[in-house]
Each structure stands twice: as structure tokens, then as C-alpha cells.
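pipeline: protein-struct stage 2 | run 1193 | NADPH--hemoprotein reductase
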Amino acid sequence: LTIMGDAGMERNVSPPDSAAQPDSLLSMTDVFLVSLIVGLFTYWFFFRKKKEEVPDLPKMQSVAAPVRDSSFIEKMKKTGRNIVVFYGSQTGTAEEFANRLSKDAHRYGLRGMAADPEEYDLSDLSRLSEIDKSLAVFCMATYGEGDPTDNAQDFYDWLQEADADLSGLRFAVFGLGNKTYEHFNAMGKYVDKRLEELGAQRIFELGLGDDDGNLEEDFITWREQFWPAVCEHFGVEATGEESSIRQYELVVHTDVNMNKIYTGEMGRLKSYENQKPPFDAKNPFLAQVTENRKLNEGGERHLMHLELDISNSKIRQSGDHVAVYPANDSSLVNQIGEILGTDLDTIMSLNNLDEESNKKHPFPCPTSYRTALTYYLDITNPPRTNVLYELAQYATDAGEQERLRKMASSAAEGKALYLSWVVEARRNILAILQDMPSLRPPIDHLCELLPRLQARYYSIASSSKVHPNAIHICAVTVEYETKTGRHNKGVATSWLKNKVPNENGSNSLVPMYVRKSQFRLPFKPSTPVVMIGPGTGIAPFMGFIQERAWLKQQGKEVGETVLYYGCRHEREDYLYRGELARFQQEGVLTQLHVAFSRDQAEKVYVQHLLKKNKENIWKLVHEGNAHIYVCGDARNMARDVQNTFYEIVAELGNMSQPQAVDYVKKLMTKGRYSLDVWS
């Protein structure tokens, strides 16, 4: 600007005639300078303008872009809620308990909402005190070996890293676990402890539900003491008896486009017709069953080996779990329809009466009652007490109504009746309807009350290195007679048993996805492995052995591969006998020890063989740094095997019992003692 000013001044001076020539030269210089300066100014002007616009663009975009409402605080304020019940749920039970607690709140002049922690920003917990009489409840299930459920993983990570001040937060925790597992209720215990460490105020003691016992009774017992504690804390009183409040309203569709009706899909409409990766719980892959053969040569049970074709799915697996979505037996579905006098092919939707809720429907809608009862609802497990309570109003016989209400009550007599008449007798909803002739609820309310049919998990019995386009499953069909003389069948295993490969393939498709697990071979192939898996617990070890054989073929140095397997009778249920013999002959399976529990007077199990070979076991573990893997029954086998390791370590390591226990626990911490067990 200074130069420009100077140039302008020089140009405006009127020189004498004698200075004409120099004047002319100066003018040309001036013109050049002015042109240059104007050019620079123009460039600067536009450059500056561009710079100013750049930061404005993201601001405009961020305002216009739809943002997920991740603040549960704002939602609670908007809808007048003061209790939020978060759930960490893998199979739907914790979510069900959370819904029950949130519905309870209205009895005390409070308003609750159930919330999936995956959908919200949990750092907002520090702001909950902004709401009067506010409380956060956590129904937290423990998955696997003390792990959080999939939907609570982010919450768990946040709790571990959080440095928040939660001094204004009031909370309570109910944990869902299973005592047969090593880390009983680890997630519930951790959340309870960690919230207190961050300054939150516990208003009621931690509840520990045990699925190996009676989870429903544990929950009811905790709940009946929890609410009086809430009342005392907030100075409120119950406004009346528990009442039936519908959460969803029925809409029957008489004129609907058939292309917009769900026929069993878990998430996206028509996802089974137009498959798109990635495949997960909400978008399962339809795998073709290419093989389904019976493994056992005798006995009453049916043990089977299935192979699923996962070509073009981009699914990768080894040592992981495959989840399959089964379908209920059509005869059970038809019987429910007949008893309730319903046209099962009616197309309907159940719409949430709470318009602010993230959960618009209890299952994918619109759909037919037949589809809902076949693919979406659990009709084979004994119903929980809240279902009985809600159904009681529809029993026209006073005695039956009283019986249902009693079983749903928290009285000792009612709990005992529920345990014997429902749980121990294994009465499902059909059996209850059959045994209570006056109980005829509207089918839409029944569909609202029944829990979701869950995916079933199986250990993968193959290696992705050897079978990149297939997943193998080893399973035993579940069939038993109940105390009432009914013949009950396992939903998934009976359904899988009938998945026979055929030419058109329509009857042999299995909706599935893979869930990662920590049950994996050591990073170094030279590390020895000791695998213990009786019965169908052999499944993941078939994959492990296949992989070790493949590594050996690649010229890798493969360490000792030791298997302890068990079955009832050598000539009846010795699974994969031929394959194991071949692996042993090839030198891949370096040791094979098989316990036939019922081939002699005294029963012999895998733990007896471990004890018999204790010197070799101790050498492999202590000197060879072997990794130990246990797969199968958690209630007895896994516990007995672990106790046997304590004994071996104590004896051969010259340790006391507490030292031996500590030694084994350290192996677990280091990932050298892994469990894949079920109860």
C-alpha cells in the first residue's frame, strides 16, 4: 500500500516540459508497477476470500448433517424420565430385565427408560444430577471368560480409561452370570466397583444373578428389595399395585405391498435375497449346508458334523464361534395358532407407544404372526414371571388366574410354585396354554411379551487355512422328556439336523455370522499345545490340528500337539476317530489320550488320564511353555480338569495348594490356559 501510494503521488505531479523524456520513462515504469500491484492485489483478494471460506464449509456441513442423538440426558429431559436402565446383553435377558425395571418406575411416580449403552455417550453420566430424583441402573451380563457383552464393550473401555467425576451420580447394578464359569459376574462386579471409584453413590447393593441356579428368582429377590431402597432414598411411595401397561400397539395391515414385509430377516429388509458384506448379528450370511453326517455309530443320541459353505462372504475364522439363527418347529407354531384361534398369516406391526424410543418394534415389522413365532420369538423356553403376570388377566377361570398371579409374585410360596410348575417341569408357552384351558390371550399381546429367539453359538471345527470357504460344526441334538411327559427338543440342533444338502438348496440354508474369540493357537507354531475336549468339546481342536498339519506341510517347525479326548463308549460315540488316527499317523498329533467313561465298571474321564500322565504334563507346561486349552462342559469337566492341574502343579512343582492355584491363574492371565466352555 505504501508503494502504491508513492506511485500514485509520483504520477499526479505535473513536471516541466524539459523533463518530458524522463517523465515518459517514469510513466511506463509506473504502468508496469501499477499493473503488477493490481495483479498482486487481485490475487491477494481472492486468496484471502478463499481462505475465509474454507473454515466455514465444515461448519455449514456439520449443522446440516444429521447427527445421532447420543445424549441420553437430553432425551430424558425431553421425555420427562428420571431413571435410565442400561443393559449389557448378549442373549437378550439383561435387556428384558432392564425393560421390566424401567416399567416398574411408574408405580413410584417415576419414569424410566431402558437404554443400550452402545447407542449413547456414557460420559454424560456426570450430568445425570441435572435431573431431579435421577438414577442410573445397570443390568450387566458377563460373556465368555469375564468379558463384557458386545454392546457394552465401548462402555467397558470408557470405564477403564475414564477420569470423570461422577460424584452427582446415583446408581445400582444387577449382574447376570453363571457360577460354573471361572469369572462369575465379572462385568457386574467391575461396573459396580468402578462407578464407586469414580465418585458415584451406590443406593442399593450389587445383585448377582446365577443362571446355573435360578436367574429369574435372583432377579425378583433383588428387585423386591431394590425398589423400597429407591423409595427411601427419594422419599417417594408406591402409587399402587403392579399394573399391566402395553408397550406396543397392534396395527393390522389389510392392503400392504408384499415386498415390504419381513419374512425372517434380522435387520435389513430383503437382506436374504440381496446379500451384502460385512456379515454380523444384524446382517447374517445365508450359508449353504454342503454336508450333514451322523458322527456316532450307536447309542440314543444323534451327534452330527455339518459343513457350511461361506464362499464369497469374506468371513475369516479359526478358533472362533459361529452363530446360527434357528427357526422354531412349525408344528409348535401351528398349535399356538390353533389354540388362540388366530390366522397366523395375518400381516401386522407392533408399534412402540413411546414415540421417542429407539426401539420402534419388538421384532422386525411389518410381518406375519407365523413369521414372528417361527423366526423372531422364543416359544420353547419356560416363560419368565413377568410374562405370567401379564397373561393372568386373560384367564377366565378364577383359579387359573390366581395361580398365574401367585407364580409371578415375590412370595416364597409363589416362587416355589413357579420353580416346580414352570422351570423344573420345563413348561413352555404352548404347554402353559394347553394346561390352562381358560387362558386365551390376544396373540398380539403374547407376541409383545415373549422374548426374542436368540442365535446359538458353536465352536468352529475347522481351520480357515485348510478350509477357507467352509465352516465345520460339531453338535449333539438335544431331546428329552419332561416331568409332564412331553417330548421337548432343542431348537437349533433339531433344526440343524434337518438341514440336509439337496439340489435346489432352498431347504439347506443357515443364517450365520462369526464372533471372534480368544481361543486361538499360539503365535509360534513351535509352542507345544495340550488340548482337553471330551464329547463335542473336540470341535475347536479339529480346527487346531488341521492348522498344525497345514503349518507342518509349509515346512514350519511345529511343537508337540497333545489331545485328551473323552466319550462314553469306544464303539458308539468316538467322534472323528478316523481323522484323529490319520493325524497321529502323519506325526501331527503327537499324543492322543482317549477316556471311555462307560466301557468299564469304574468311570474314567479326561482328568484321570491327565493325572496318569502328570510327569509329561508338568514337563510340557513348566519346561516347554505349553499352552493349555479346555473345551466342553463348564459345570463339571472344566472344573475337575482345573482342579487336576492344581494337584499336578502342587505335587511336581513342590508348591502349596494356594501357590499351585496362583501358578495356574497366572497361566490364564498370560493366555496360556484358555477355556471355551458352556453350561
